[in-house]
Amino acid sequence: WESKYFIVRFSVAGVFMTAVVSKLDLVSLIGKIQSVIASKPAIPILVNVLIEAIDGQLIITATDLSVSMR
Fold it and tell me: Where is mean pLDDT largest: 1-10, 24-33, 40-49?
C-alpha cells in the first residue's frame, strides 16, 4: 500500500505539529527548485533543501550556499 500523502511530524518550542502534503505536489515542487543546485557540486555537504510551514503555506528553499532559490 502506497500513501498519496507525505506526513511530517515535528515539534517547535514544545508544541507538536503535523503537516500533510500531497506526494505529487511535493515531488513537483522539489523538482522545480532543485534545478538551482549543480548536479555535481564542489562541496556536496553544503547542498540542502529546507522545507518550512509558515502561515499555512509550504515554503521550499534550495541552496548550495553560492546560489539559492525560494
Answer: 24-33
